[in-house]
Design brief:
GMP Synthetase, Chain A, domain 3, 2 domains, 5-stranded mixed sheet, 5 helices
Length: 139
């Protein structure tokens, strides 16, 4: 009976150690947040430029800080033609809604990534940067 108990304890210990080792190794092999964000930016940049809609082209993406991901766009307007109040009133809520609901954005939500959306006019001048922090999309 003692021998069977020892075998069972040995098997359970082996399984627990094996599962723990597997968990630790998988966590060690999983890229950290910054590395993962850099991979996402690299993949987006391979595809860029991409026409997002009739007025907007995605030019590039970058990781610019700790848990900070930036998108860079060009609009079909000159920078001085962009109505910043309209953008703030209508575009920010739309972006926040998409971040909250899009399965593609789940990694950003789970890791509370700050997203910056920087828009330039077709003239190359800066129009506006929208800063979307986790507190905006976590509520």
């Amino acid at each position: 009976m003692r021998k069977a108990g020892s075998v069972i304890v040995g098997v359970l210990t082996f399984l627990l150690v094996g599962a723990g080792t597997y968990y630790l190794v998988s966590k060690l092999l999983e890229p950290d947040v910054q590395t993962r964000l850099a991979q996402v930016a690299k993949e987006l940049n391979k595809q860029a430029p991409v026409q997002v809609d009739q007025e907007t082209r995605l030019d590039s993406a970058a990781v610019t800080g700790n848990k900070t991901f930036d998108y860079y766009y060009t609009l079909i307007y000159r920078a001085d033609m962009v109505d910043k109040d309209t953008i703030s009133k209508y575009i920010i809520p739309e972006i926040v809604s998409k971040i909250k609901s899009s399965p593609d954005m789940s990694y950003f939500r789970e890791h509370e990534i700050t997203l910056n959306y920087t828009y330039y006019g077709y003239d190359g001048n800066h129009a506006i940067t929208l800063n979307i922090t986790p507190d905006l999309y976590k509520n």
